[in-house]
Structure formats: C-alpha cells, structure tokens
Amino acid sequence: MAVPATQLKQVLHEEASPVRFERVTKRFGPVLAVDDVTLEVPAGNLVTLLGPSGCGKTTALRMIAGLEWPTEGRVYIGNEDVTPLPAANRSVTMVFQAYALFPHLTVFENIAYGLRVMRRPQAEIRQRVSEAMSLVGLPGLEQRAPAQLSGGQQQRVALARALVMQPKVLLFDEPLSNLDAKLRKRVRADIRMLQQDLGITSIYVTHDQSEALAISDIVVVMNQGHIEQVGTPTDLYRRPASRFVADFIGEANLLPAVVEDGAVQVGGHRFPYQQPGVALGAATLMVRPESVRIAVGGEGLPGRVQTAFFMGTYADYLIETEAGEVSVADSQSVDRLYAVGASVRLQFSPSAVYLLPPG
Amino acid sequence: MMRYVALAALMLALAGMGVAQAGPAAGRVIVLCSPAVEWCDALKAAFPRATGITLDFVRMSSGEALTRLRAERANPTFDAWFGGTGDPHLVANEEGLTEFFRPRNWEELRPELRDAVAGKYIPLYAGVLGWALNPRLLREKNLPEPRTWKDLADPRYRGLVAYPNPTTSGTGYTMLATMVQVYGEREAFEVLKRIHRNVTEYTRAGAAPGVLTGRGETAIGITFNHDSVVQILRGFPITYGSARDGTGYEIGGISLVKGAPNRANGIAFIEWALTPEAQRIASEAGESYQLPSNSKTPVPRVSPRFQDFNVIKYDFVRFGKADVRDKLLDRWLKEVFPLPK
Amino acid sequence: MASSTIALARPAHAPSTTLIAWSGLALAGGLLLPWFRAGRELAVFVPGATGLELLGSERTVAAALACALLCGILGGLRLPLYRRGQMALTTAALGCVLVVLALARSGQPMGPAPVVLFLGFLSLVGAGLSLGGYLRADAFIAASIVWVAVFVVIFILYPLWAVLQASVFVKGRLTLEMFGVVFRSPNFLMVGNPLTPMDEMRVASTLGAVVAVIAGLTAAVVARRLRAVVVWAVGAGVAGVLVAALYLGFGAVRNSVLLAMIVGGFSTGLGFLFALLAERSQLPTRRLLGPVSILPIITPPFVLGLAMVYLFGRQGFVTHSVLGLSTTAFSGLLGLSIAQILAYTPIAFLLLQGVVRAMDVALEEASETLGASNWYTLRTVIWPLARPGIANAFLLTVIESLADFGNPVVIGGGKPYLATEVFYAIVGRYNPNEAAVFGVVLLCMTLTIFLIQRYWVGERFYVTVTGRPTHATPRRLPPALDYAVTGVFLVWVLLIVLLYGSIFVGSVTNLWGFDYTFTLKHLKGLSPTGWHVFRTTASLSLIAAIPSTLLGFLIGYLVTRYSFPGRRALEFSSMLSFAVPGTVMGIGYILAFNQGTLLLTGTELIIIMAFVFRNMPVAIRSGVAAIHQIDRSLEECSTMLRAGSATTLRRVVAPLVQAALLSGLVFAFVRAMTAISQVIFLVTPRVNLSTALILAYVEHGSMGRAAALSSVLVVFMAVVIMAMYWSVTRLDARAGRGAQAKP
After folding, report:
1. Cβ–Cβ of A67/C636 closer than 8 Å?
2. In this structure, which of C17, C426, C429, C436 has its CB flanked by the most CB atoms within 10 Å?
3. pTM of the model
4. Do A146 and C652 make contact, defined as CB atoms within 8 angstroms?
C-alpha cells in the first residue's frame, strides 16, 4: 500500500519559499506583543523562534500563518505580500502544539481533510494521503482514531496532514511540548531529518533552548516583542549579544569585570584575554559553568565552596567569590568533592569566556 | 456553504410564488368574539351554513377587544364585535370605534334591553348578577344563605366570600355599580368595607368566584347567575341566588366596527346573530345560558329568569361613562382594597 | 501530478460568487414575491403587490431593487475585491434603508418580499464588511454577525423599547403621569396604610432600630472593632426597616419582593443542603436527587400551584380530608412561597452542586489536620468558598420568583404581584400604558439583580463551576448532619410525590374534593380541543427549538471565537431576554408587533419568535460552554487547511458539540412547551398553547381537565427528556474515543 513519496518530496522542495517580516508590529489592545520586527527566513531553512513565554514568538508565528494580523508592517512569503490574505489563502500549514487532530475523524480523514475541503477527486486524495503517510512513516494506521495513537504517532499524523497540502512554508508551534523527555529527543531528530530531507522552509517556535540549539539552522531569540539576537546555535552559545541571551541559552555566570589592555580583571584575579571591539573599562564577563576550572591553590579567583552536589557525570558547586556567586560544573572532582567551606581558586580559560557590555 | 444557503432560499422564494397570488377571500367576515370559545366555535360553523359567508374570529375578552379596536382605529381588521359585557361596547361607541345601526330585526329585541342601552350598541343577551352558594360548606359552618348585599358583611361569613376585583372584571364593576345604585355611594362603600373582612379572594375574572365556590374554596362567590349555571352543569354542588334588596344585570352587546373592511358582511352577521336560530346556539352548543335578546328566541330551560329576581333599573348609560367608572374604581382601590383583614 | 500545486489565492479580479448569489436571491425575492399582506394572516397577500407590479408606482421599492441589482453587477466588475466589497457594503446598506422606508411608508403588514430582500441585503452588508476588510472574518461569519445583530435588535431590543415608550408616551404625549398614577396606586405599593390603626412607618423604624442595636451589640462582642459595629448596626438597621416596612406594607411591590426574598432564601438554603447531600452523603437516597431535580424543567411552572390547591386548599386532600381543617391559609403568600420553593430549589441545587463538587477536598483535609472541628471547617473553609456560588443561586432564584407569572395567577389569592399586574393591566383594565409602567418597574428590578449577578458574582462563580471536578474521594458528611439533611430531603420528596400524585389522580377522578370516583372523562374531554392544542404546542415548540438552538450556538460561537465591534453588546443583549420577565417581554411583543408593517400578533410566527428569543440565552450558555471544551487550535487547523468558517463549523465544530446541541435542542423544546408568561399575551384560540389552555381550564373551573392536560404534558416531557439522556449518553460514548484525544 505504501506509495513512494518522491513526488510529494519534489513538489515540497520546489515550493519552498523564503519568509520575510518587514517592520511588523502587533498590538493586543495596550499590550505590545511584537515590536517593530524585521526578519528574513531563507528558503529551505529551519528557523527557530526562541524566547520565554510572552515574548511574542507565537504571535509572530501566527502572523505568518494568517491567524493574526499585524497592526503595522508587512509579511511576505516568497515574493508575495500576504499581509491582507486570510489563513486559507496563504499556502502555509502548521503543526499545532497539541497537534489539533480532529478527534471525530480517523487518521486518514484527518490527513485528507484539507484535500476534501478543496474537493480534490477521491483518487487523488487517496494517492496523496498515502504519499504523506509513507513520508512520515505511518504505515497501516489509516483507520485508527487519533485517541488510539501514541504521542509520537499523533505528532506524525499532524505532520503528514500539514505536508499533504504541499505548503510553501511549514510552521511548528511548540510541537514537542506534549511529549515526555525521552520521546522528545527522538521526535525532534525525526523532524530535523525530515525537514533537511525535504528542504522545506520551516519556522519553529519553542521556549526550550536545548531543543532550539539541537534542531535549528538559525535561532531567533526574542524577548518582550523584539529580537535579541539572530544566529546559528554555536554563535548564540559562544557569543551571546546580550546578558539576556547569555542567560537564556544555557547556564551562564555573569560577573562584573574590568577590561584592561590585553587582560581582564575579575575580583582580584587578572588573566590575559583579548576580544576585538571591546572598549576598556567596566564590562560583564560571561563564563559557562562547565568552562570554570576549580583548584585548591595557584592562580585564580579565590572563593569558598558554599554548596557541593554530586550529579553523576559532574560535580555541581556554588562558589562564593569577591565577584559574586559562581556556578561551576566540574567533571574532574566527581569522585572526590570539595568540602563545603573549603577555600578554592577558580580559573577561566580564555577560549571559553566572552565579554558583554556592563549590566 | 453560503452559496447553498442562497440557493435554498431562492428555491423557497420561488415556492412562495404559488401562494403569492391568493387574494383575500370574497364573502368573508372577521369577528372579534368575546364570549366562551365554545360559542364562538359554534358560530363559525353555523354562520356560513346560513349565509354562505365565511366567518373568521379572534377570541378576546371584552377588555382586550377594546384595546385591540383602539390600536386598530386607523385601519380596522374586524367587521363586528360579538358579545362581552356592555361597558366596553359603550366606551367603544363613545370613542367612535363602533357605530350604531338599527338592524332589520330591531323590533324583535326585548324592549327593556333596547331602552336600557339607549341605542349605543345592540343588545345580544342579558344576565342577572347574583352569587353562587356552596350549601355544603354553609351547612358545615351552620350558616344561613345570605339574602341581601348587607348580609355579606356579616362577620360570620369571614373568609367565605369571593368577588371579582372590579378593576379587572366587568362583573366586579357591575356589582360595585349595583350596590351604589341600591344603597347610594356612601353607604355602598361602607358595606363594601365591611364585606372586605369576609373576602378570601378578589378574583381577576368574573366567572372565577363561581369556580371557587364550586371547588369549595369559598362559600359565597359573586358572579352572574348564568355563570353559576355553567358550574352546576359541570357537576359542582352549588346553587345560586341574588340579593333581594336589588340586584343589577348586564346587557351583552354586539357592535359594528366603524370603518369595517367588509361592512355589508358585518351587518349581515349582526342581523343573523340576532335571529332566534342564531341565538339558540348559545345554550345548545356554546355552554352559555344568558337571556337571549330576541324575544322570539326560546329561553333555555336552565337559564336564570329575570322575573325570579329583584332586578333594579340599572343605569347603563351613567355607569358606563368613563369618568364615573374611573372615580368609583379609584375609590374602591384606595378605600376598600388595601384595608386590613 | 507535479503541476498539481494548488492555486491558492483566487485572482483578485474574479467574479465574487457570494455577492452575485445573494443579490440574485434578493432581487428574485423582491421582484417575484408579494410585498404586503392583506391582514393578519401570514399567507394572504395584497393582490398586485409583487415587486414587478410595484416597480412603476413605488419609487422606494424600485430603488431598493435597483440596489440589489447593483450589488450583483458589482460582484462581476473587474475591480479589486476589496473595492467591490466596500461598494457592495454601501449599496447594500442603502438597500436596507430603502426597504425599511418602503415598508414604513406603506404601513401595511409586510409580506415575504421585503423579508427576503432585507435579509439578502444584510448578507451583502456582511460580505461587504468581510471583502472590504472592515472585519477580519470571512463573508459567512460577517453575514452571521449582521443577521444575528439585526434579529436581536428586532426581537429583543425593539419590544423592550416599545415597553419603555408605552410607559412614558400616553396618548401621544411624553409624560411621567402614568408612573405617578401607578406609583400612587395601592396596587403598586403602599408603605404607610392610612386605613389601618397602626402607623406602619413608625413600627418599621422601631423594629429597624431594635435590629440595629442587636446587630451592633453582637458585632461589638464578636469583632470588637468600631468599624464592624457601625457597619453591622447601620446595615442591619436599614435592612430591618426595609423588611419590616415591606412586611407591613401593601401592594404588588411588597408582595413580589417579600415573596422573592423568602423563596430566594429558602430555595438557596435547601439547594445548598441538597447539593451537600448529593456530593457528600453516604445514604442511598441521594440517588433520588437527579430525577427530582429534573422535574421542574418538565413541569409547566404553575402546575405545582394547581397541585397545592388540590392538596392544601379548603377542600384540599391534606387539609380537609386528612386533617379536617377548613382553611384558605395556603392560598396567598404561604402557598405561593411553597409552590415557588418547590419549583426553584432544583435550580439552586443544580447551580450549587457544581460549586460543592468543585470545592477542593484537600483544603478541608488541610483544615482538619490543623485540628479544626467540622463546624469550624464549614465556617472558615467551605462557606467562604461557596459564598459566591450561593449568592449567585440566591440572585437567580430571586429573578425567577419575581418573574414568575403562573403560580401567582393560580394561587396568588387575588393579591397583586408585579408579574401578574402587567398582565391584568392589559387584559383587565385595558391599559397598555399602565402595564408598561409595571413592566418597566419589574424590568428594572430583575435587570439590577441580573447585573449584580453577572458582574459582581458571576465572574468568580463561573470559574468554579466549569472547573474540572476533582477526582479525590469526596469527604463524607458528619452522620448527624447527613441524617438530618436526608430527613429534610425525604419530606421534600414526599411532598413532590403527593403533589404530582394529586395531579395524576385529579385527572382521573370525577370531582376533586367531592367525588373521588375513577373516571376517564377528563382525559376523553381533551379531545378535540385539548389534543389539538397539545399538538399545536408540540409542533410550534419543535419548530422554534431548532432555530433557537442553532442561533444560540452560533452566537455562542461568534462571541467566544471572534472579536468584532459590538461583540459584548451583542452578547449582553441576547442574554438580556434571560433577565427580562416573560410578562414584560410579552407586553413588549404585543406593543411592538400589533400594528403597522411588523404586524405579527395572532399568527403562529410571533409565538415561534417569542420561543426562539426566549430560549436562545440558554442555548447561548450551553453553546459557549460546549465551545470552550473544544481546543481552539482545531478550528485554526481547519482554517489553515483551507476550510472556510462555514465548513469549519459544519465539519469540525458541529460534530464535536453534537451531544450539547441535542440536549440544547431538547431543553429549548421543553422550555417552549412549558412556557406561559410571555406567550399568554400572544395566544389566540386559533393558535393556542397547552399552558394557556390549562390556565383557562383552571379559570373556568374545569380542574379535572386542567389536571388531565397537565399530566399529559408532564408525562410527554418526561419521556422526551429520558430519550434525550439516552441518546446523549450514546453520543458521548461514541465521541468517547475523541474525548481522550489529549494525552
């Protein structure tokens, strides 16, 4: 019964279009949900909108979908200005947070829904539905009710239902939030593989930074309606543009520092470091917990162990220092933890720190 | 979906075309009918048989009917107004809603009724005011039957009297006006105030006290005697009587509506309704036992006869006037109704 | 296949089928159908009054038809769609105005042509709003909004306006005279009765002062704060004066308010106790609560009053035959209170059952682990949690009691009540202006309570009721309380059994109170009139139930899912008829639809309309509740899959709410079958309804026949309701696979 999905693949690949936001603003009454956002999503990429809840990422997604309309600005899909078009006329489809499978329809009917609405001939519907089903790997479940499927299967039905419409852009609204942690990892890998395989433009909304880092070509970090930073996952992790990004992506120690010529001083500790484009004077030093080395003596920022926990692959410390509390994830001392109250020295490797404007 | 709705509606509209061409039926009369529905129904069946004219009626109490006639003054729907107490017929005539004409069989009507309403409307029937009595309840309480209006004020009848609220019932107003004519206004109100202590309920409708008496809720219910007859024929164990010091009566009317759309048919209907053949219908099929206005109509066996009671010379013209009526009702409402019991 | 990419956006210059179809329909209706009726009858028309025939003589008609034609032409023009939408909007709006003008100028009862034309224009206005970009919704939704708004204006707001107008316009003059006359009348309210030896105001003030002192002292002992003392003393004092003055007073306001307070208090109290019983009792009797709580829904409102007469009248079975009394004490406030409490306690019970169920048992357990006694827990945990719900139940039963018409008519003992005075002023005193004044007063009272309920209590209350029931094992009542409440409940059940029993027995006995021999004559006597009326009632109720449910659900859908200008106003006005007493709406309908072009009285249509708009708020409520259950993303998903909103409604929403739709339909049907207060103004012998007929039987003394028809009605509706529950359970079971869709 499985039909080779090559045709669908080809169409999807050809259709993939860029998406562009031009100075888009969205207000809900007095609330500014999206604030003058300009953004370009290249065709064929998977771009994630990442941010805490209420940052405007879902609103931005829904404006692409046509479920919300910008107060100001334009939205383009391909070269077409779709701002005035209703959702039904946009050649965009979406995988919803809780999948939004129609509970009263079977899997087949769910996937066929959009085609039936468009009154495609019965044979074509059957053909295209089975293409989509084999694409997402759902063999022989046509007659099941959504409630009889596992979470992962439901997710695939939702995906197939979106793909069968041959959209120019595919939208994901936190599609993994209803899955448990283990399944989430697998499904996100599936989504990523399928997306790369199809080369379809995808926009993905999540508040989970690890998901964003794992899956995206480009991550757009949003906060309070505006874009904080656009970049590849590595960029964001290594070189955050703001304290917000540093803090939001992964865990970060943000310490007050003074930039001197060719060196940085934190607390009483001074170490050689250079970062182009940073002015001398006060700054914030970002260092990830796993990049802090901990030692009993020698060079480094002096501190005292406040808490120490065994975490399996590493030891988790909170060290009280002159520059403030520093969180450390140290894998060296897993077998023999430093005692609470012990005096230690912290060292920062220059390759793992980054300077931000003073906060 | 929109298109389907539009299409379906279009088809409906086309289907409607079929009925669209039907005009108003020729040979039709539209009647406001105020007596019991049974009577109205019987008329609807009988009139076409007699004349070939179709009859349509709307049943309304006389008060509603008057309101309706007022509302439709500019463009009346009805041709004739059949039955109901005389007062609203009088008012309608005063206000120019109805017009008086001398029907062909005018001379056959009972002269005393003709004179009493002084050519304001045409008498259709008459009925004596009285009271329904529940002898069983009276016997239980060891009480005599009342003989006069003043007897009703006897404290022994406490909680055993019901009469219709004169502000909502023509019967109630007839009682009020009767007492004023028998005793004079001042004394009448004194008596009414004393009766008030005995009253268990002021009913809305004129026939209701008879019903309450029949059900044994009360021992004495003031109502028209022909309404008591209806209750007796239903099987309720009651009797009826009237005040021996003078009792009033009503003259039910029939009127031609001014500006009636089918005037000729309206007149034909009224003249037919005054014939003995038509008036017999009341008791034979209409559960109504008033005295028919045509002297040639056989009086039903069970109908209360005027000669059996001390009927006063009721001044319909004076007590039918709006200002007299309003004054009396207002006085009753302010001086009698709110009295403590 | 590779080229089968779907053409999505239609070209902007393509003809608009929506515009063309609707203007074609409007035009066809306006041209071919007759414009005017010859009279009251719905299907008798003025000859020569089709649009074609009027084109030459009536300019407004011709202009309106031209507008329709223009809209169709616009649909095919090669202009951008939004421009055509804007132009269609203007043209169609002009067309609406022209239709209204043409009707107003002729003053004749309107025929089908203007209806079709006007509705066509409304749809075009909706399409114009949508295409022109004024409303972010498709043409179907926009047209629905416009239709619904216009219907609500014509059938809810306009009649109310007519009532207001009649209360201040007497014989064409703007005056407050009628208010003066009514307010001075003892029928309305008399606080200090000059005819009594007592000085009521002084007694009331004295009583108030005594109450104030007692309350103040109590507050001083309990709270020991000056502010509490002042608040309590003043509050209790004012309340005391008011209650005492009312109690000693006279008139409709006094009777209605006193009755409403008694009934509200008792119904709410009993309702709460029964709710505790239903949720917390260990005794098997609690299972009876379900069926008993349905009874008032299937019972015409005054049937309990009728039964009260049978049982407790002077010849009543209990008072006379059993106890040997001869009393009419039960006719009047006492009997009336009992009848209303019996009728409205189940309403309070159903509301409060939700409250009790939603109460988090953990809180009580927490209180108990902290060493609180049962009583202390009740006072400090349960009571504050239940308070908004209790206030809500109280206010709603007060509204019901104030608005009740049937019971005061049957066992009011001839005393004036606000709801009945509206009716008597019309049918007894022939004074529509006076009726309007009574109506306005009653309306103000119920509206005030409704607003308090909605904006002060309602919001907080709503959350607890729709909240999911907690699945923790419910706590049991303390046994002593359990037995005591169960005792009260059993007395209640006994009373109910006796009352309904007496109706059934009354329908097969010769003459209640005198002759208890078995007979079928009352049941046989129902033919032909009784049966005929029963069939009319059933068919009109069924015809009305369908649009009222669909319209209610549609409004519920529109107001929950769309935002548009006037959304709140629409929601409020459509809920308004919930707060408007039936008699007030009834006189409104009489005043609004008794003449001119909107002449509808005396026809089936006006009764259907009355039913539709009377029962719509209930449907809106259940619609809103049902739609809240649906994840909104289902509809959004459907939209993204290219479905228009009509398709989404039909293919996604409707299947998911079908159980709610069915029960909404049945309730609308049952409510229509048992309605009395509004339709009593609208019935005619040709179009009569069972409830009005029962009332007429009671008035004419045919008690047996009244009992017979009541029994038939109650049994019929019990069957209908049971069938409904059965099929809803089946529907739910079928939808069960969907209910667990969310992991």
Report:
1. yes
2. C436
3. 0.85
4. no
